[in-house]
UniProtKB/TrEMBL annotation:
Belongs to the short-chain dehydrogenases/reductases (SDR) family. InterPro entries: NAD(P)-bd_dom_sf (IPR036291), SDR_fam (IPR002347). PANTHER family: CARBONYL REDUCTASE 1-RELATED, CHAIN DEHYDROGENASE FAMILY PROTEIN, PUTATIVE (AFU_ORTHOLOGUE AFUA_3G15350)-RELATED. It comes from the Bacteria. This is Carbonyl reductase. GO terms for molecular function: oxidoreductase activity. It comes from Anaerocolumna chitinilytica. The gene is cbr.
């Protein structure tokens, strides 16, 4: 079994690579930086995992198309890469102090470029390479704003990504395809994306390794998850009321 994981050089992406690799899956480490990607490949290899580097920058479609040409067939496409705010933002981590009123339209557009358009281009481009029973898995978040956490650009880009995934799922079902696409929501995970926040809610934030294990388990089970948005505890988020299981 072969999996391509975007943003696999660190954080949750690397942890998914490790967890899937330990289960015998061959890992294609998608990363925008060759040196960071090759470092991850080395780390995985020392753990006995078969891994190789594939350059993928969601903000540069040429890299996506080149990668598609290099790869014959995929069993799993894990769309993990994502950014917390505009790729032009100064801070690499989510700015928890930025309020809804501080966001510009450009912030939203530039976040969409990576989280939504980049992810869509991955799906569109790799779909013909996906095995008959292949799975596409988006690593995502719930869309309902709450008082603890509601970063405008990030959350709206993920909402668009979630709806896009469910629309593909509907099309898989309607065309009798045995391919699947679904979202996994790992909950709060301490990574660079949130400045390794070990937040106000004690015990709520998990490590990347814990998240990677949870995600790998869902990805490798034998259930049909097409069209589902699944929480870290296995609960299916029903707020989306996707009409494909009725
Ligand atoms: N952390 C959480 O609490 C949490 C919760 C739910 C969902 N998620 C989702 O999980 C995913 C991974 O996040 P994380 O927390 O592991 O964050 P992270 O540690 O910041 O890792 C983000 C990954 O995405 C890559 N990336 C960023 N821009 C990219 C681009 N233009 N093209 C390709 N790769 C790019 C980064 O590469 P570089 O190293 O080159 O920057 C890095 O590998 C994201 O989609 C995030 O929304 C996170």
């Amino acid at each position: 079994m072969k999996a391509l994981i975007t943003g696999a050089n660190k954080g949750i992406g690397f942890a998914i690579a490790e967890a899937l690799g330990k289960s015998g899956v061959e890992i294609l480490v998608g990363a925008r930086s060759e040196s960071r990607g090759q470092d991850a490949v080395r780390k995985l290899s020392t753990k006995g995992i078969t891994a190789s580097f594939v350059k993928i920058d969601l903000d540069n479609f040429d890299t996506i198309h080149n990668a598609t040409e290099e790869i014959d067939q995929l069993d799993l496409l894990i769309n993990n890469a994502g950014i917390p705010d505009s790729y032009k933002a100064d801070r690499p981590a989510l700015d928890q102090k930025k309020t809804t009123f501080d966001y510009t339209t450009d912030d939203l557009r530039e976040t969409m470029e990576v989280n939504f358009f980049g992810t869509h281009e991955m799906i569109r481009s790799f779909l013909p390479k996906l095995a008959e029973n292949g799975k596409i898995v988006n690593i995502t978040v719930p869309i309902q704003p709450n008082n603890f956490w509601h970063p405008l650009a990030y959350q709206t880009s993920k909402a668009a990504q979630n709806v896009m995934a469910m629309t593909y799922a509907l099309e898989f079902k309607n065309t009798g395809s045995s391919k699947q696409i679904f979202g996994v929501m790992p909950g709060g995970v301490a990574t660079e994306l949130n400045g390794h926040t070990v937040g106000a809610l004690d015990g709520f934030i998990k490590s990347a390794e814990e998240a990677g294990e949870l995600i790998a388990k869902l990805v490798l089970d034998t259930e049909n998850h097409n069209g589902q948005m699944i929480q870290f505890d296995g609960k299916i988020v029903t707020d989306y009321e996707v009409q494909i299981h009725g």
